[in-house]
Amino acid sequence: MQKIGIGYEDYREFIDSDMYFVDKTLLIRDVIEKGGKTTLFTRPRRFGKTLALSMLRTFFELEYDRDGNIIEKKRYFEGKKIMEAGEDILSKMGKYPVIKLSLKSAKQPDFRLAGLRLRDEIVSEFRRHGYLRDSKKLDAEEKQALNPFFSPLPDLQILDEAKAFAEIGRYATSLKVLSDCLAKHHETKVIILLDEYDVPLENAYFTGFYDEMTGFIRSLFESALKTNDALELAVVTGCLRISRESIFTGLNNLEINLIHGESFGEYFGFTQQETEDMLIAYGLKDKIGQVRDWYDGYLFGKAEVYNPWSVIKYVKDHRESPEAFPRPYWSNTSSNSIIKELVYKADEDMKKDLERLIEGGTIEKRIHEDITYGDIDQSEDNLWNFLYFTGYMKKVSERFEDDKIYLTMCIPNREVRSIYSDQISTWFEKIVKNTDRQELYQAVISKDTDRIAGIFTALLEKSISTFDCIESFYHGFALSMLLGMPAYEVRSNREEGLGRPEIILYPVRPKDPAYIFELKVRKKFNEMQDGIEEAFTQIRDRKYEEGVLEDGYIGAVSFAVCFCKKSCILELYSQKK
Asked: Is the pTM value of this prediction over 0.90?
């Protein structure tokens, strides 16, 4: 079997190492025939954008070996679909100088470090074209313009903030300089490939220097993509479209392909057939249904696709261990900051939307194509926009009203649903941990069941109903609320008497009683008293209190507790006896 290329992003490595490759080479044809002067592709993280740009570079780039001979590119595409695209397309193979730049290294804690990392990436690309310094086709003035970008880099540690900003700023027009020199040297125009263009912007938004980073990226793009006569075509990839006014100022030659665009849908992500072919190739045909439930469900244009990263990881893991459980692989690679924003700021309406989604329902929201990270706090709709464009939502249908687009959306699959659930669980745990529980502790000691029930209910009202009727949720909730009660040790499901009570508070001081909590869950409010009665029966028949007393404690107080949705009732067992 062919090696599965986990973590590989260089197209040539797939070919040279004979790794399993899902053939997306017709993207090359469509970029030429359907793309603009500059084409922007927005797709979620880990959907093959970097590999796609590497493939484009391999196809287009004019390269020489150490002896000065042109490197033949056909061997990288033998047997691939692009070889049937016709001579007009194939004649462009290996004919252009290429500038390829990734912006993902700019994910840094401040503008100074982020900008300097971008500078390092740019310098590295200049050095890749270091032969220009000896070019006989460039005059002295042109070489002089190049030289600063080949110079030794100042030590990051000795730059103060002002000098660092100045150092960063002089690279804003660097790609234009490199384009002009490459075009003159090779006597043909240049192709520019820019990967992960919005990573610096997302990072800057969440770390507090969005305006500075936006200004730098705008200047870089204006010079490279707007006022560049040396440009043949450019391809830019990212997760979000950032508004034209913010980044792509005046760039009239920009062709934007968003996830709901009509073209290019099948090139990012695996189609149903591609997924089935891979599973069959690795002896996992019987797993097709499971993979569909977990990783399918994305709709890009008219193409329904699977998450390619998750499919690849699934195949690798299950090739070695066929009975392993599916996992949310994507959650470990993608930034979940957007979901955190949504959950932390959720009001009652947004919580209802989240509940509906996690339960498998749909919501309808207006979609804005021109948004910025700076807009995220302006309205609830912006958060849903971000979730849609970053792959956390799927379009079910759309409608137009007064020139506005409204999408009906759902969660794509089980993998993404688990990400929502994990974030919501973490959010609720933080609410519980940050709650002052002194009132609860006093209510337990005074056996005030109404007060305990009121405290539990007030907190449950802040939760998400997706956890309703899941006993483990209520058990974890009650346990976390009771942890930390002064002079008590909390134990869960410890054997006492003839069974295992849900929660017991064991006293540190011998004069204090132990507190036993037996929990039940019901789906309907009119069944809650039945839950209390069941808890009483269990406390009595399994002799929980007798077991505690036999352990040497001088007293035991038992509470029967029943949860239903966001409500709670309690009763004392002693009042039942």
From this structure: no
